[in-house]
Amino acid sequence: MFNELGTYDTVSIPAERALTVYVDKRELVTLMTLGAHPELLVLGFLRNQRLVASVDEVESITVDWEVGAAAVKTRQGISDIEARTAKRVVTTGCGQGSVFGDLMAEVDSIELPAATLLQSELYGLVNAIRLQETTYKSAGSVHGCALFRGAEMLVFVEDVGRHNALDTIAGWMWMQDGQYMSGADKVFYTTGRLTSEMVIKSAQMGVPIVVSRSGITEMGLDVAQRLGLCAIGRATNKRFLCFSGAHRLTMQPELVGSPAFQATQAG
């Protein structure tokens, strides 16, 4: 392929795959994904769709890339699965994400834990993302999501859509130490915009602080405010906008422009 100068370049292109999910032999949905962590993606998808409430409900997840299918076997089946999946909302997620049922049905029942984030920790996690080796840097065309404890990156996932990356992290949290990892002291980061879907899923994971290098939608902001969730957007270098939940962000004005902060941004 050639560029704007008419010279030829060699570039990397991410491989997008279709993965059809079957639950107890019933076709549920087809996910478009890079396919790096398919079992975690499927597990997190089921969790964030509120189709399973515990990892113990899932007996096995078998992925066969030759036929592009993931077979989920539950221990006792999913009650009323046809009624619960009858209503489907096509979201603004890249690749057209889908959410089953009413997006807002359980929002008001979610209670987020008390948690705060230091401004220095926010800068630290943004810097960690900047230094992370990513598919995006070499090929573009993907979104990245990460889970942090303070400025410590616990897991980083890239996929075609940010909703897939988020679901994969939800699946990863569920597999830690045989129980669902608490989101109480965690921060969720995404390269994509904070839509209502992203805010709701973060809240369902128990994560009270979300950070994006992009912006937020009106509905995403409304949900974040209702939940008391701290939504931070436009986070690049030392710039950011705190859209909601400002009580969760501990400001440190002395950091901006300080030699110590400048050192973290160098190189």
What's the short story on this structure?
InterPro entries: Cytidine_deaminase-like, FdhD. The chain has 267 residues and is of the alpha/beta class. It has helices at 38-48, 81-84, 119-131, 135-139, 162-174, 196-204, 218-227, 259-265, and strands spanning 17-23, 26-33, 58-64, 69-74, 88-90, 98-100, 117-118, 143-149, 152-159, 187-190, 209-212, 230-236, 239-244, 249-250.
Please tell me about this protein's structure:
Required for formate dehydrogenase (FDH) activity. Acts as a sulfur carrier protein that transfers sulfur from IscS to the molybdenum cofactor prior to its insertion into FDH. The chain is an alpha/beta fold and 267 residues long. The chain folds into two domains: 88 residues, Ubiquitin-like (UB roll), CATH 3.10.20; 149 residues, Cytidine Deaminase, domain 2. The chain has a six-stranded mixed β-sheet with strand order 9-8-10-11-12-13. A four-stranded mixed β-sheet has the order 2-1-4-3, with helices on one face. A two-stranded antiparallel ribbon has the order 5-6. It is globular. The two termini are 31 Å apart. 36% of the residues are buried.
